[in-house]
Amino acid sequence: MNSLISIFIFFSAQIFIFSKNVQTESGLLKPLIEIGSNGRGNDSASLAWKKIANLPPSSIPNLLYAMNQANELGDNWIRAAISKITERSNVSLPIDKIISFLNDQEHDGDSRQHAFYIIQAYQPERANELIPTFINDPVLSLRRVAVAEKIRYAKEETNKQKRIELLNAVLKKARDADQIKEIAESMNIDGIQTDLVELMGFFVNWQTIGPFDNSERKGFEKKYPPEDKINYNEKYEGKNGQVSWSSFETSHELGLLDINLQFGELKEVVAYAHTQVESELNQDVQFRIGSKNAWKLWVNDKLIFARDEYHRGKTRVDQFVINGKLKKGSNDVLLKICQNEQTQSWTKQWEFNFRITDPTGTPLHSSK
Q1: C-alpha distances in Å from residue 103, one per residue of 5, 129, 324
Q2: Using one digit for the tens of pLDDT, what is the confidence trace for 100-134?
Q3: How far apart are CA 268 and CA 214, in angstroms?
Q4: Which of 360, 239, 227 lies closest to 296, judged by CA?
Q5: CA of 10: how far to CAs of 1, 13, 24, 253, 268, in Å?
Q6: Count of other CB atoms within 10 angstroms of residue 88
Q7: pTM greater than the 0.70 cutoff
């Protein structure tokens, strides 16, 4: 009887200690999770961080979970604390629990990605074993690693038919534009042509109108008639006279629309491009735009994003990824593309490409 009582007391004490530790961690993490912008909560977070950075390695899974709850600022604080812990205790990390956390796709992408970085840094062999499991992962940074490995294997295959089969299989899994293009170029070497416009879902058929005035860059904020109502039959006063809607399409392999081909190489001008998108259901999507010009995006008359900047770098596929929604049925998409006054050769571009994907990067082919 005495031995049973002793066992009961021992396990009760262990449960109490575990509960206390969880409560302690929860209390310490609260200031990091709740830290706000403009320095709000910064002092409390700073004090808590010093204690969190001294937690044992067994706390890392809980810290990863806390990253899911924190904003970007809190996420950075927690990430730094994990780094301090791993630097101090690399031989006793709870790798199995970190892997379990990584394998749970319900967790936020940043926290899962960081879990993989920890495994990769301290047990690279186990990390390598995990990579093939990411091939369908919704976190694109993890999927990218798996796709890169399969691309490498495919290129190393000496049998042409098998190589083509491997490349074609990984092409269906790739989501990042550069990897898709790399695969397509490899298949092209083997004589297989890939329609990147169809594969990646670029919108290549638009109705455009312009040019409107953008002198002194005031056109970016100026509200021209297409922002009020889309009517293809209407004519408006443009920069150099009346303007009307006209069809515009491109055959560029990456869906690039060169507006200069439509209106000429003009400066200090604004053009609008409109299309309609059919969606089978109400859904979360990502609008993916490439443009080195200033631009605005409206979806169903709602301004989704605006970028008032010109000619930094070059136009790239998926240069900007904006989260948004499509409603079931027809959706109006309107882009405003602005050109400024600069005359250097590298400022002549007046262009964009556009596609829509689901949140995992899978393209939605739905342009009318």
Answers
A1: 40, 13, 27
A2: 999 999 998 899 999 999 999 999 999 999 999 99
A3: 4
A4: 227
A5: 14, 5, 21, 69, 78
A6: 12
A7: yes
